[in-house]
User: What shape does this take?
Amino acid sequence: MSEAALTPPARGERLHPLYLLTGLGKVVKGAWGIIAGGAYLAFQDKLGLAMLLLGGFVMLSLGSMLLHWLTFEFRVEDDELKIDQGVLSRSSRSIPFDRVTDVDIEQGPVHRLFGLARVRLETGASSAAKEAEGALDTIALDRALAIRDVVRKRRGVAPAPDADDARGAEESTAPALLFAMDGRRVLIAGLFNFSLAIIAALFGASQTVGDVVGFDPFSRSFWVSAMASAEPLRDYVLAHRFAAAVGGTLVLLAIGVSTGIVRTWLREHGFRLERNPAGFRRRRGLLTLTDVTIPAKRVQASLLATGPIRRAFGWFAFKLQSLASDGGQGS
Assistant: This one.
């Protein structure tokens, strides 16, 4: 990393202009109520009002994001990060580097496509406060790595070498691979992570847009209506209720196992845990790539966890607990 890249600019920096694209995910997550309202109006033959509602929401969301981008500035100084934001109520926050446990770097699909990154400064505060305290949503990846090196240099921690930078390094300083997960191991881990998240998602969808589109799988009337046109199936279910209950239970188990595998694959794909001069570095993720390092001197405890089924197969979960009390590395 060049010295010029580490030199803080005289003026404040802004987020990358593509923040207006990467920030759309948060907008969509909070738009379920608006979508349900628009769908209801559309089904009531009020398409104009539906388009007006959805169009107004899109314009307000884009305007809010643009305003945030125009007013958000950050400066990396000698011993702290300063963040200024706001229009009518202008706020300025200073985050001293001696409070920062580390700098986490995340890359979603759009970030990886355009060479960008999301940066979060971890402190000893709670996880909910950390996001509000020091988060740079979309900046260039090179700048994110430079900021991480600045923080570690000011705190007396050696920068973590990337894989490409470590090729010509001495063996004593090269990162040591402690644990990695290939596709087979990730698949096995997914079998132990039973999850009914998709059931929860369907329940949430049925509560928001179910009445509008006539989809509510948690209602008895829904299934009675669905089987009304399939009398043979309805008669079979009524005549073999025990078999139907067993079949339903097996389907539920299959859904839970499948959902656990998918969630684990998305989260743990490419898992690598390394020991480098900066501490313990963990990289993982299929769609969202996360790069987290816990300085060795901030590790408070190592935890081994398991359950009855995992224990029978000799599997354990390993975690490093840091001063931030947010877990750490897991495998």
Notes: Residues 281 and 289 are 13 Å apart (CA to CA).
